[in-house]
């Protein structure tokens, strides 16, 4: 198959391109700064010569959007919104004007669309969309607005011959440098991998190889469209998540951090505490109902595998 991945130069795109290319597919990455074989320039907002890559392709997986690993200033939040919505609209316009449209368009979304909660997990049928929770920072609602606008841009695209799936993805854990697993493991190795703000908030995650397998599953299943949660079936509280990560590396102790300590650390790292403090308890209802099986459903075993691969050469 020919698979086009707009915004495919980040961590998730690297994971996906590597696996799909190894499986024998023709993978084209659309990038603002192409520099490798198989990468084609686009601006992420307007149609251009890149649209010919989509015409005649089989699958589009749009991952484009500004990284969330930044300070959530008004300017950065607006850039997050614009980069996601504009790129999704551009992909939709390209598909709509092709003579031979792809049969499926997988659009990256996020598990952040769901409400901050501890009491029950969110699946696609019963999950509560966030934005109105009490006692959370007001700007957290804007992250939900971004997710909703991102999905709406795909929904509104006039692509009647292309099936559309919104990937409500949790954190994708891979041993690649610079990814979320790399950052969390570095904290654990420095002795800073304890619970943050008590550690009761849930962490939703997915092993990189299960992420790829889920994408392949959704490509093959013509009966699945709309929002699909890409998350392992066993989210767990942050304190247990970090305990398992420390055990995988062999770090006996992790210093806890209060909320204000997390805020100070996030400021120094130019990141935001929402990534640590929001409770994301998300489960893959539709995937499981459709018969998908996870190779790494539980975090301790997944963390062991990621550490083993990192020590053996990261990407294997």
TL;DR of this structure?
The protein is an alpha/beta fold and 316 residues long. It has helices at residues 11-22, 51-54, 74-97, 140-156, 180-189, 208-220, 238-249, 259-269, 274-277, 285-289, 299-312; strands at residues 2-6, 26-31, 39-41, 59-62, 104-108, 163-169, 171-173, 202-203, 205-207, 226-230, 236-237. A seven-stranded parallel beta sheet has the order 3-2-1-4-5-6-10, with helices on both faces.
What's the structural blueprint in terms of helices and strands?
Layout lengths: L1 E5 L4 H12 L3 E6 L7 E3 L9 H4 L4 E4 L11 H24 L6 E5 L31 H17 L6 E7 L1 E3 L6 H10 L12 E2 L1 E3 H13 L5 E5 L5 E2 H12 L9 H11 L4 H4 L7 H5 L9 H14 L4
Parallel strand pairs: 1-2, 1-4, 2-3, 4-5, 5-6, 6-10, 7-9
Antiparallel strand pairs: 8-11
């Amino acid at each position: 198959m020919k698979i086009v991945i707009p915004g495919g130069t980040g961590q998730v795109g690297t994971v996906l391109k590597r696996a799909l290319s190894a499986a024998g597919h023709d993978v084209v990455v659309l990038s603002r700064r192409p520099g490798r074989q198989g990468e084609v320039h686009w601006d992420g907002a307007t149609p251009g010569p890149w649209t010919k890559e989509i015409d005649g392709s089989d699958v589009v997986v749009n991952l484009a959007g500004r990284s969330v690993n930044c300070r959530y200033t008004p300017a950065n939040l607006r850039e997050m919104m614009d980069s996601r919505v504009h790129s999704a609209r551009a992909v939709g316009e390209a598909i709509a004007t092709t003579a031979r449209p792809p049969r499926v368009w997988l659009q990256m979304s996020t598990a952040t669309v769901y409400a901050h909660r501890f009491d029950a997990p969110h699946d696609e049928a019963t999950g509560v969309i966030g934005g109105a929770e009490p006692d959370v920072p007001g700007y957290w609602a804007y992250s939900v607005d971004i997710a909703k606008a991102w999905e709406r841009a795909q929904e509104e695209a006039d692509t009647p011959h292309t099936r559309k799936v919104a990937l409500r993805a949790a954190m994708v854990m891979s041993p690649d440098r610079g990814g979320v697993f790399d950052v969390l493991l570095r904290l654990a190795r420095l002795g800073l991998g304890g619970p943050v703000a008590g550690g009761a908030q849930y962490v939703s995650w997915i092993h990189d190889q299960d992420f790829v397998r889920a994408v392949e599953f959704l490509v093959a299943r013509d009966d699945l469209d709309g929002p699909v949660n890409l998350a392992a079936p066993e989210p767990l509280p942050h304190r247990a998540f970090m305990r398992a990560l420390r055990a995988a590396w062999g770090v006996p102790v992790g210093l806890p951090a209060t909320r204000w300590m997390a805020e100070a650390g996030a400021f120094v790292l130019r990141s935001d505490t929402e990534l640590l403090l929001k409770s994301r308890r998300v489960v893959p209802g539709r995937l499981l109902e459709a018969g998908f099986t996870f190779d790494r459903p539980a975090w301790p075993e997944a963390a062991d595998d990621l550490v083993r691969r990192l020590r053996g050469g990261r990407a294997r």
